[in-house]
From TrEMBL:
GO terms for biological process: autophagy; protein deubiquitination; proteolysis. Residues 793-819 are annotated as: Disordered. This is Ubiquitin carboxyl-terminal hydrolase 13. The keyword Membrane does not apply. Belongs to the peptidase C19 family. CDD domains: Peptidase_C19B, UBA1_UBP13, UBA2_UBP5. Its EC number is 3.4.19.12. Zn(2+) binds at residues 211, 214, 231, 244. Residues 793-803 have a biased composition (Basic and acidic residues). Gene3D superfamilies: Cysteine proteinases (3.90.70.10), DNA helicase RuvA subunit, C-terminal domain (1.10.8.10), Zinc/RING finger domain, C3HC4 (zinc finger) (3.30.40.10).
Amino acid sequence: MQRRGALFGMPGSSGSRKMAAGDIGELLVPHMPTIRVPRSGDRVYKNECAFSYDSPNSEGGLYVCMNTFLAFGREHVERHFRKTGQSVYMHLKRHVREKVRGASGGALPKRRNSKIFLDLDTDDDLNSDDYEYEDEAKLVIFPDHYEIALPNIEELPALVTIACDAVLSSKSPYRKQDPDTWENELPVSKYANNLTQLDNGVRIPPSGWKCARCDLRENLWLNLTDGSVLCGKWFFDSSGGNGHALEHYRDMGYPLAVKLGTITPDGADVYSFQEEEPVLDPHLAKHLAHFGIDMLHMHGTENGLRDNDIKPRVSEWEVIQESGTKLKPMYGPGYTGLKNLGNSCYLSSVMQAIFSIPEFQRAYVGNLPRIFDYSPLDPTQDFNTQMTKLGHGLLSGQYSKPPVKSELIEQVMKEEHKPQQNGISPRMFKAFVSKSHPEFSSNRQQDAQEFFLHLVNLVERNRIGSENPSDVFRFLVEERIQCCQTRKVRYTERVDYLMQLPVAMEAATNKDELIAYELTRREAEANRRPLPELVRAKIPFSACLQAFSEPDNVDDFWSSALQAKSAGVKTSRFASFPEYLVVQIKKFTFGLDWVPKKFDVSVDMPDLLDINHLRARGLQPGEEELPDISPPIVIPDDPKDRLMNQLIDPSDIDESSVMQLAEMGFPLEACRKAVYFTGNMGAEVAFNWIIVHMEEPDFAEPLTIPGYGGAASAGASAFGATGLDNQPPEEIVAIITSMGFQRNQAIQALRATNHNLERALDWIFSHPEFGEDGDFVIEMENNANANIISEAKPEGPRVKDGSGRVLSTGTHSSEDRDFTPSSSFLVWELAITPLWVIYNDHKVCASERPPKDLGYMYFYRRIPS
């Protein structure tokens, strides 16, 4: 008990037992096979616990496993020991002390231990002139908590000494997120210097782009060799694309592409297909100019600013942060801020919004013991673990404590300073959620709306059992398309997660002031005088709502009544209203010079919003529907692609396209038929087939092809068919059972994940309650017929419909891309006294003048009817 007391800093402890060199060697001998020297590529976590935000600065320090190099705080290290049996940990602790002062009041030079943790962050709240740091390291052997002080070269075996030195000298795995090292992280593409660009006369307009192969208008990439505009990968929520940019590279070998919409004077998102990673193109301006894009067209001014828009943005940011107002700090549960990593504004605001919602609090923080206990061996790479860790950090109040009273500070400082940690640094979370994403893994600011959808995608794919907290955002949109020539209509539904409102600039209520301001501004620029005070356009929210509800022209509309392309208009209405409505004000566009332009506007967003008048009504009396005829499949001109015009073998159906459609909520067999009948031409084309045929009686029936012996179910198991014949391949079952799982667990997990090995392993970890129930598989087989029947009647997308009256609960005010240095999120707090709370990075205060009119994204909660 004395050793445990010394380790945990308990009162009355007198230190660990002294041991001779031989004793230490004998103590370590049984554990030598588990002690590893970090190799190149190993991530050594010595800054942050895998389950909490404890660090060497925390009271209990941090424990680094000498086998996995994962780090754990004091309350979580025992869990890792019990789960893995790893016994040897390095305990790291940083001590902060006030410097001794001389008679004149100045700090005396004091000899102190050299720092061990070379890349640990210092506390920004402490004045480095007044405090000094002393770092301590020791080996701890569980379960008896034997301690061995470091360094201890004479007494430790050579292997242990080498391993300890390697751990202590290792760099942070999150160095890429450090703003000071951004420019050195992205590699320069080896193709940039000698990139071939075809002289084909292609010129890219500043807007109106679409994929050259499938007409998609989002997630578009410009190939820097031939100027082709093609779509990127597909996401579950119908965003993204069909991977045509990658297909084009495979066909032509042109290596570099830039994402349209990310081009600014500071750079753009460039991807190398050959090198399979985001890269830097030092000649990007020249390569873009080849296609008529002037990325450097931002004029300098006399004061050194590169763009006249910078000053208004700073002024707006001062308003958002309520500069000049003394705000009351808020501490405790729910009032924890997120430290800015230099490019994490978008992430901070979205996550503050997410964890202000009870459904997310219950799904993750409410299930914390179960999620942590059944997390995989590397919890840093598990989405649910990291979501739970972040949620607990924000909601527990553990990292948001008021400063110690002044009279206690003086007393404490005489011995050792124990600073209260205010705010948490989401490095581990950001590293995981941005992994393998070409935009969020880059070093520039990103769009909060895009990250919100990316997060919803991750929540969908990693749901815990049947619970899916992102359902609170999900709603159905009814789209009514009318052929202008025949007046016939078609009604379809799609799933969405946010409402995008255009800015109706023409409806500004202060046009005379804006004209006068613009004249004064130009005159001041010409005469090199100070610019006048900014005047923003005041836009009525009702005008934005009206612009949303007005019909839009449909480009390249194919009329089934005419069986030809025609003019068409589309209107959108809510087929259901979500529990939480996310509203995005579309403040950004591109000018003719390709420079992003911000609508510097003030929108009078209401606290109470009623959109019941936007409820969908369906087919109306007197309306005639467009015939249910699919548009003809356009076969590419490339002769090698003409085989697509022929029916394919059922066993050759593109499984990835099938799964993309199935993840959107459509019946599996319908997805298989859609991909088959569209000739494996991608999920987008198959999606159009589904929309046209989803009302047919046999929509969800198995694929039946003449000449293939009736139902084409020979390869059903490969595509996740259900029922008794859904037997997973034995080779995949064997792989899972070889990892120590029971056979019934393996079969059950594979059936639940359409025989996908990676997803099946995730399913096992997230459904531990089924691992001990050997009767579950039998019960599943007994209910197989019921499952088949229920699949024949698709439930459709999951929605929680209700009233269209919603109350504002929060607004995200950090602007798009890299226009602002930090984030601000306002939350309407109803716990005790109604007030707005502003989250400005790690600082949390009660808001006195909430700038609700300057927001970018707004969160509304449905009012029960």
